[in-house]
From TrEMBL:
It comes from the Bacteria. It holds the Pfam family ThiS. This is MoaD/ThiS family protein. It comes from Anaerolinea thermolimosa. InterPro entries: Beta-grasp_dom_sf, Mopterin_synth/thiamin_S_b, ThiS/MoaD-like.
Length: 82
């Protein structure tokens, strides 16, 4: 099955030549989960903070479907200066 993937912030380095947040298509076997996607991309699972599928936050055991759009975020720092 084919899905669209967006990698954000520092995860952009796992997709050389693509800008962070730009979608790309990926082929996965039927029944693949977000965890399977993370492993296929070579992302360190302990660095994954939030995953979205079709605009909704999902857990790593979420089963993906043909045509889904997944977004994966690492922890992101920032805030106000004193």
């Amino acid at each position: 099955m084919k899905i669209q993937v967006k990698l954000f912030a520092s995860f952009g380095r796992y997709r050389p030549g693509a800008l962070p947040g730009m979608p790309f298509e990926l082929e996965l076997p039927e029944g693949a989960t977000l965890r399977d996607l993370i492993h296929q991309l070579g992302l360190p699972v302990e660095e994954v903070k939030v995953c979205f599928v079709n605009g909704r936050v999902e857990e790593l055991d979420y089963t993906l479907s043909e045509g889904d759009e997944a977004g994966i975020f690492p922890p992101i720092g920032g805030g106000c200066l004193p």
